[in-house]
Amino acid sequence: MDQSVKWGNSISYALPKYSDAEGNAVTLKTVQDGYPDLPSFVKFDSDKNTYDISPSALADIGSFKISVILSDTALKSSYIFVIEVTNSAPSFSSDLLPQTVSILNTITYQVPSFSDPEGNPVTLTTTEKDQIALPSFVIYDESTTTYIINPMDISLIGTTTTIAVSLTDND
């Protein structure tokens, strides 16, 4: 049965029971498909027939096909399962709230805190929706995660500006 684990977490996976129909001793070998060993974050406990799966490096994110090879003195059979290590997206601690400002006034809006569930560094990117930069009357202060909104042009009366905010963890 395939296994899924979030990066930075741990799970254990027990192999199904196995035996030889003729009663011969069974030898078990386990490898990552195409490699001579298991991935470094996978440990096999032969006493319990369990895999301890603890991905902690960024290179551990992805899909890993594991081959379990059972053999007696004459025959072999194999059992394959996949370990999928996932990475969760960063998120804000609360929703971003719409802001309303009157012409010739200034308001500030501090972005809610944000983080990555796996503890990776997070980058916040902000632009006017469908544009490559913020409008001239909006300044984003990265050091305080605060927007300063100061519409001084009367042509902005009655208009709506949508600001796009995205979080990335580069993983």
Folded structure, characterized:
It contains no helices and 14 strands. The strands form five sheets. It has a four-stranded mixed beta sheet, with no helix packed on it. A three-stranded antiparallel beta sheet has the order 2-5-4, with no helix packed on it. A hairpin with a 4-residue loop joins strand 4 and strand 5 (50-53). The protein starts with a strand and ends with a strand. The model has no long low-confidence stretch (mean pLDDT 91). The protein has 171 residues and is mainly β. It folds into two domains: 3-86, Sandwich (Immunoglobulin-like); 91-168, Immunoglobulin-like, CATH 2.60.40.
Ordered list of secondary-structure elements with their pairings:
Elements: E1 3-6, E2 11-14, E3 27-32, E4 42-45, E5 50-53, E6 62-71, E7 76-86, E8 91-92, E9 107-110, E10 114-115, E11 123-128, E12 138-141, E13 146-149, E14 163-168
Parallel strand pairs: 1-7
Antiparallel strand pairs: 2-5, 3-6, 4-5, 6-7, 8-10, 9-13, 11-14, 12-13
Give a short overview.
By secondary structure, the protein is mostly beta strands. The protein has strands spanning about 5, 10-15, 25-30, 40-45, 50-55, 60-70, 75-85, 90, 105-110, 115, 125-130, 140, 145-150, 165-170.
The structural domain count equals 2
- Architecture (CATH level 2) name of the largest domain: Sandwich
Q: What is the spatial order of strands in the main beta sheet?
A: 1-7-6-3
Give the amount of beta strand, in percent.
Answer: 35-45%
Shape: rod-shaped
Overall pLDDT metric: 91
Binned, the helix content reads: under 10%
CATH class of the largest domain: Mainly Beta
Number of DSSP helical runs: 0
Low-confidence runs = none
The CATH homology group name of the largest domain: Immunoglobulins
Q: What do we call the CATH topology of the largest domain?
A: Immunoglobulin-like
Q: Provide the gyration radius in Å.
A: 27 Å
Given helix and strand content, the structural type is mainly beta
